[in-house]
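Is iron/sulfur cluster placement plausible here? Inputs below.
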Amino acid sequence: MKEKVYNWQLRRKMAYKYPETRPKKQVAWIFDTNKCIACQTCTLACKNAWTSGKGQEYMWWNNVETKPWGFYPLGWDSRLLEKLGAQRWRGDRYAGKTIFESSSYGEEITGFVPEEDDYLYPNIGEDEVAQPVKKGGYIKIPHQPWMFYLQRICNHCTYPACLASCPRKSIYKRPEDGIVLIDQKRCRGYQECVRGCPYKKSFFRTETKKSEKCISCFPAIEDGFQTECVVNCIGKIRLFGFKSDWRKPREDNPIDYLVHIKKVALPLYPQFGLEPNVYYIPPINVPDAFNRQLFGPGSKNAVKIYRKAYEDKKLIAALVLMGCTNKIINTIGVSGDINSGYAAGYNEAGSEIIRVPLKEPIVIRKKYDRDRNVARISVT
Ligand code: SF4
Ligand code: SF4
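Reply from A.M.:
I modeled the complex. Tokens:
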């Protein structure tokens, strides 16, 4: 790895195969782990759209796994964490090695190719809590046994390991929006991208003998729409948009606001060194140490800010606009006070595309509805 590039998530320069180049704008996602219900609607929306063909059966470009015991493929992160060795942070600066800096002799990037069997159990560990629940136990607040749902897609990384691993130079990052794609004409199916991607989001297709990965729903994006996994999310936990340069974040850009200004949304395993562009609001019910390993040293502060979100109208605006429109929100505005005000989303041309209340109204419906002659069990 001969080049030195700056990785803002590590607050330092690091080794990478190619010189630093940043796209004009960068596709980015925010996932609020606290709101996910693991319904897997996102997973099936993605599958129906992109991977319903022969040889794609095992491909889940989007999956949702239960942490700490869920993995797809099996042990994708724990196996790599072990290979990577100690991952130390000094303050917010990463003092350990990335996958580009830790490889052993004969290997360019620290990685591994999962076995066929590792792809057999996409739902392993689903809904399993971190520790055994004692017989006769009941829920106390705070809730001690914990788990949470981790939504996973390709991160369209700033320093993609798949791209750096490819001996054919078949993988490229689009300069206009940072989407990472595999050129199917150039690919020869060597599977080096499968080995290199630490998130295991590049998949080999036996039918075509080539590798495939998430394409960030680029036909939709080019028409101003958010990705399938975002618009189909039942829990409204997702937001898609474009992130500005980390040195010049914009207050009115919801992604910049959540990632760079409030620092409430964090990358997954920043220590791998890829500068991934999917950002997670960490789960508030999980021990700090676990969050820190997954999301880096900013996780404790992110949880604190999220818990006090009601103190910042703009933060609430960015959060309530998640999942409210299928169109890409470029900028947001906020009006009125926290109890009766509104959040608005605007497109690239500055036209308003969505307006929602900052505080969702609570409607209490009658137990017995005379007009429809129905009795309701849930009345909220
Ligand atoms: S997550 Fe993996 S497949 Fe996606 S861009 Fe990063 S290295 Fe490549
Ligand atoms: S659709 Fe939304 S709520 Fe359902 S599993 Fe996917 S991310 Fe979670």
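Short version: The mean pLDDT is 95.
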